[in-house]
TrEMBL record:
Protein name: RecBCD enzyme subunit RecD
Catalytic activity line of the entry: ATP + H2O = ADP + phosphate + H(+)
GO molecular function, one term: FAD binding
A Gene Ontology BP annotation from the UniProt entry: double-strand break repair via homologous recombination
Upper classification of the organism: Bacteria, Bacillati, Actinomycetota, Actinomycetes, Nakamurellales
EC number: 5.6.2.3
Length: 632
C-alpha cells in the first residue's frame, strides 16, 4: 500500500525520510503536503530531466501520474489531481485548469513514442495506455472471430440436464460461456459462479470430438485452491455421464499458468509467440487481476480458446493498477444487447458462423450465426445460494450504497452481523475486547491443539475459523497494532511461548514469492509438530507440503491481515476493523470485500458514522478501459 495512505502525520522534520531531498517548487510542495512520496518526486524529476522538460506544472502532473499507479489508477484526471492537492493543502499554489491541461498536452513528454500519453482527457504513463489498448484489441479480435463451433443438440440436451429446475441466470451464463470466446461470469459470494463454471466445463466436455484441454487459475494460491476444491466438489455431484475429467482438474495461480521467468515480474514464458496449449481457460477472482496481468493473460491465451473470467465486480480491485473486471463488465455491457436470439440453446447465437472455425469438438456448421452483441459476453448472477440471511443482506445494502439498510441489519438483535463501537480512536475498548478475544483465543487454541497433534490439515482448517481484517497495515487500527494486541491475549492464555519465534500453531503469511519452494506472496501456513520436528505446513493444490522454519525467508505472523490480503480467502467468522471515516481506504468496496470474506458471522469494529462513510464512498480508480471498450 502506498505511503500516503499509511502515513498518519505530515512530515515535520526536514530530514523525514518521506521528503525528497533536493525537490523544489510544486513537487516539493506536494511532497510536503504528503500527497507525493519521495519516490514519485524522484521518478518524475528523472523523466522530466531526460526529456529536458522545464515546466514545473508538467513535472507535477508526471509525479501525480506515478502516484496514481501506486494507488491503483492506470491514469489520472488532472481535475481530480488538483482536487486531491487542494484537499491536502488548501492554500497551496496549485496549477489551475485549463492551463495545467494545456501545459501537459503541449509538453515534450507527451505524445507518440514519448513516456506519457494523453487520451480521453486523461494522462497515462505510456506503458499503461499500451496495456489498455492491448486488452481492448485482444478482446475485440477474439470477438471478431466466428463464434466457436458448437453441437447445438448436445448443448441443448446438456443445458436441460444440468440446469433442470435450477437457476435460469446460471443456465444463461453457462450458455454464453459455451458459445462465446470470452465470457465474464460475475456475481457476489455464493451466487453459484463456481457451480456454473463446473457445469460449463461438463457441457464442453460433453461436446462430440476431442476432449478440450482445460486450465483453471486464480491470482492467489489460496483462491486457486478454493476454485479447485469447489469445482471438484461440484463435479462429484454430477451424474457419471456429465462428470468426465472434472474431479481430477487442478487449478494453479495465474503466474504459474503463464509460466514464471525468474527475475522477470512483468513477462512470462507463455506470450503471443508461445501461447498456452489450452482450449478452455477459466480465471477465478478476476477482480484481483491487474491491468498488466490481464494484458499478459490475453496475449497468452490462444485466440481459439474459450476464456471464462469469473469474479465479483463489486469487490476491491487488484493491489496493482487497474480495475479490470469492473471495467470489463461496464465496458462490455455499455452497448445495448442485440435482439434476443430465437430459442435458447438452439438459437442462432449458439451456432457456428463458419465451417473453417474448427476447434475441438468441431461438427459441421449450422446455418450462419448472428454474432452476439457485446452485452451478451457478460452474465451477472444475483441470487445468493450459500449464506442466506444477514450477511447477504448486509452485503447487498453496502453494494447498493444504502447505509440506512446496512445499519438496520447491523442493529438487528441476534443477527449474524454486528457493529461494535470502539471506545478509543485506536479501535479498541472493553466491549471490543470482550467480543473479539474469545474468537481469537478459541481459534488459536484449536490451531495449537491440531499443531501439537501433528495434524497439519486440521490446523490449517482451524486457522480459517476466524480472522481479524484491518483496512490499514500500520497505524492505530492497523494490522501491526492488532497483531500486538492479539499476541498479548495469546500470551496470557499460554498459547504464545515467550521469546520464541517459532512454536506449534504459529500461523504465518508469506510476504514474497519464493520460486524454489513454490510459495507465493499471500500463501498462509502454520507451524506443526511433525514427527517431533517443527515444520511449517502449507496446502498446495489440495495436498500438504511442509518446510523447515529456517527455509522460509519472508513470512510474518498472521492473526490479523489487511482486507486487500484477504481477497480470495474465506473464513468462518470475520472481525473487520473499519478505517476511520477520513481514511482514503474507507470505501464501499473495502467494506463489501471484508464482510463477504465471512461464511457465518461478521463483526464490524467501528462507529455508525464510519459505516456511513464507507458505504457512501465508492473507491475511485481512474482508468480509460471502459471508455475504450465502449468505443470499440
Ligand atoms: N442453482 C443452485 N441450486 C442449489 N444450490 C446452489 C445452486 N447454485 C449454487 N448452489 C450452492 O451454493 C453454494 C455456493 O455456490 P458457488 O460456490 O458455486 O458460489 P460462488 O459464487 O462460486 O461463491 P464464491 O464467490 O464464494 O466462490 C454451493 O454450496 C452450491 O452448491
Amino acid at each position: 500500500m502506498s505511503t500516503f495512505t499509511e502515513s498518519f502525520e505530515r512530515p515535520q522534520d526536514p530530514y523525514d525520510r518521506r521528503l525528497a531531498l533536493g525537490a523544489s517548487g510544486l513537487l516539493r510542495a506536494a511532497n510536503v503536503a504528503d500527497v507525493l512520496s519521495a519516490a514519485d518526486v524522484h521518478v518524475a524529476t528523472r523523466i522530466a530531466q531526460l526529456a529536458g522538460e522545464p515546466d514545473d506544472r508538467v513535472r507535477l502532473a508526471v509525479a501525480m501520474a506515478v502516484r496514481g499507479i501506486r494507488s491503483g489508477s492506470v491514469c489520472i484526471d488532472l481535475a481530480q489531481a488538483r482536487a486531491t492537492l487542494l484537499l491536502a493543502d488548501p492554500g497551496g499554489d496549485w496549477p489551475v485548469l485549463p492551463d495545467w491541461r494545456d501545459a501537459v498536452r503541449a509538453s515534450l513528454l507527451v505524445g507518440a513514442g514519448r513516456p506519457l500519453q494523453w487520451e480521453f482527457d486523461l494522462l497515462y504513463l505510456d506503458r499503461y495506455r499500451t496495456q489498455e489498448q492491448q486488452v481492448r484489441d485482444d478482446l475485440r479480435d477474439r470477438r471478431a472471430q466466428p463464434p466457436p463451433v458448437v453441437d447445438r443438440v448436445a448443448l441443448a440436451d446438456g443445458l436441460d440436464r444440468l440446469f433442470a429446475g435450477g437457476d435460469p441466470g446460471q443456465r444463461h451464463a453457462a450458455e454464453l460461456a459455451a458459445t462465446g470466446w470470452t465470457t465474464v461470469i460475475g456475481g457476489g459470494p455464493g451466487t453459484g459462479k463456481t457451480t456454473t463454471v463446473a457445469r460449463v466445463l461438463a457441457l464442453l466436455m460433453g461436446q462430440p470430438g476431442a476432449r478440450p484441454r482445460v486450465a483453471m487459475a486464480a491470482p492467489t494460491g489460496k483462491a486457486a485452491a478454493r476454485l479447485q476444491a469447489a469445482v471438484q466438489a461440484q463435479a462429484v455431484a454430477l451424474s457419471p455421464a456429465d462428470r468426465h475429467d472434472l474431479p481430477t482438474l487442478t487449478a494453479s495461480t495465474l503466474h504459474r499458468l503463464l509460466g514464471w521467468l525468474p527475475g522477470r515480474s512483468q513477462r512470462f514464458r507463455h506470450d503471443r509467440d508461445n501461447r498456452l496449449p489450452f482450449d478452455v481457460v477459466v480465471v477465478d477472482e478476476t477482480s484481483m487481476v491487474s491491468l498488466t496481468m490481464m494484458a499478459r493473460l490475453l496475449e497468452a491465451v490462444r485466440p481459439d480458446a474459450r476464456l471464462i473470467l469469473v469474479g465479483d465486480p463489486d469487490q476491491l480491485a487488484s493491489v496493482e493498477a487497474g480495475a479490470v473486471l469492473a471495467d470489463l463488465v461496464a465496458g462490455l455491457t455499455a452497448v445495448p444487447a442485440a435482439p434476443p436470439a430465437t430459442g435458447s440453446a438452439t438459437g442462432s447465437a449458439t451456432e457456428s458462423a463458419a465451417g473453417s472455425a474448427a476447434g475441438p469438438g468441431a461438427v459441421p456448421p449450422g446455418p450462419p450465426a448472428i454474432a452476439p452483441a457485446r452485452a451478451d459476453a457478460v452474465a451477472l448472477l444475483d441470487r445468493t445460494w450459500r449464506f442466506g440471511g444477514d450477511i447477504a443482506e448486509l452485503a447487498a445494502a453496502v453494494r447498493a450504497g444504502d447505509a440506512d439498510a446496512a445499519l438496520a441489519v447491523l442493529a438487528r438483535p441476534g443477527a449474524d452481523v454486528a457493529l461494535i463501537a470502539p471506545e478509543d480512536t485506536a479501535g479498541a475498548g472493553a466491549a471490543v475486547d470482550a467480543a473479539v478475544r474469545p474468537d481469537v483465543v478459541g481459534t488459536a487454541a484449536a490451531v495449537r491443539a491440531a499443531a501439537d497433534a501433528g495434524e497439519a490439515q486440521e490446523a490449517l482448517r482451524r486457522l480459517d475459523g476466524h480472522r481479524v481484517l484491518c483496512a490499514h497495515r500500520s497505524g492505530p487500527r492497523g494490522v501491526t497494532q492488532w497483531t500486538y494486541r492479539i499476541e498479548n491475549w495469546l500470551a496470557a492464555e499460554d498459547l504464545l511461548p515467550p521469546h520464541r519465534l517459532w512454536y506449534p500453531g504459529r500461523p504465518v503469511l508469506v510476504t514474497a514469492n519464493d520460486y524454489t519452494l513454490r510459495l507465493f506472496n499471500g500463501d498462509v501456513g502454520v507451524a506443526v509438530l511433525t514427527g517431533g520436528q517443527l515444520r511449517v505446513s502449507f496446502s498446495q493444490h489440495g495436498r500438504i507440503v511442509d518446510y523447515a522454519p529456517g527455509r522460509l525467508a519472508d513470512v510474518q505472523t498472521v492473526h490479523a491481515m489487511t482486507v486487500h490480503r484477504s481477497q480470495g480467502s474465506q473464513f468462518d467468522r470475520v472481525t473487520v476493523v473499519l478505517p476511520e471515516a477520513d481514511s482514503p481506504l474507507c470505501t464501499r468496496e473495502l467494506l463489501y470485500t471484508a464482510l463477504t470474506r465471512a461464511q457465518t458471522r461478521v463483526r464490524l469494529i467501528g462507529t455508525e458514522a464510519e459505516v456511513r462513510a464507507a458505504v457512501a464512498r465508492p473507491a475511485a480508480r481512474a482508468s480509460g478501459l471502459r471508455l475504450r471498450m465502449a468505443g470499440g
